[in-house]
Specification:
It is built from seven helices and eight strands. The chain is α/β, with parallel strands linked by helices and 223 residues long. The chain is globular, with a radius of gyration of 17 Å. This is L-xylulose reductase.
Length: 223
């Protein structure tokens, strides 16, 4: 697992899953990230999950805002995937990659220009990777969640009064739980999805049917 976590969450991950190895790296640093991924060794299944959320209004969007979102949400996906995919190709045994994208690739979120643009780029990266890596039996797909009830998600959207309008626009009337996203990721990584390549799998309860959203997120949310 490659990511940048505070020490406590990293240790929690290790305690819950003693078999895993955690690596702390600034994904915005291209060269350092590349070396860290190379040092991990062979990877057969990759999930690009790191991302920055939040944002500002279109007229207030700065170069720094764009650069920070694209450094992690876009460039890091390309960087990590390149290293891993080269190893997959060299070993000749195929593999699978999942890019965690967002429902924001199909609807506009107010005050989230850079975020929406970066996640739209992720879906296009997925399609091109699927096209070019498919002949090597490497499948690449995106999973696109809505608001997910992580610890951070519950803090921002746990108030029933605040979340009622949002839930009312979701046909299933609820937000996604972490397990909902995990199950989708495990499916597209598994042999059961052996002919699934280049798709965007929305985990949003059909929330993305409308084209524009007039709400804002004040926290970094994977959806």
């Amino acid at each position: 697992m490659a990511g940048c976590f505070p020490e406590k969450p990293r240790w929690c991950l290790s305690e819950q899953n003693p078999a895993i190895r955690t690596v702390c790296v600034d994904l915005a640093d291209w060269a350092t990230t590349r070396k860290a991924v190379e040092d991990i060794g062979p990877v057969d299944l990759l999930v690009n999950n790191a991302g920055l959320g939040g944002g500002v209004a279109f007229l207030d969007t700065t170069e720094a805002e764009i650069d920070s979102k694209f450094a992690v949400n876009v460039k890091a996906v390309i960087n990590v995937s390149q290293v891993v995919a080269k190893g997959m190709v060299a070993r000749g045994q195929g593999g699978a990659v999942v890019n965690i994208s967002s429902m924001a690739t199909r609807i506009g979120l107010q005050d989230h220009l850079a975020y929406c643009a970066s996640k739209g780029a992720v879906d296009q990266i997925t399609r091109v990777m699927a096209l070019e890596l498919g002949p090597h039996q490497i499948r690449v797909n995106s999973v696109n969640p809505t608001i997910v009830m992580t610890e951070m998600g519950r803090k921002a959207w746990g108030d029933p009064v605040k979340n009622a309008p949002m839930r009312s626009r979701t046909p299933l009337g609820k937000f996604a739980e972490v397990e909902d996203v995990v199950h989708a990721v495990l499916y597209v990584l598994s042999d059961k999805a052996d002919m699934v390549n280049g798709i965007t799998l929305f985990v949003d309860g059909e929330r993305n049917g409308s084209g524009v959203e007039l709400w804002t997120l004040d926290y970094e949310n994977p959806g």
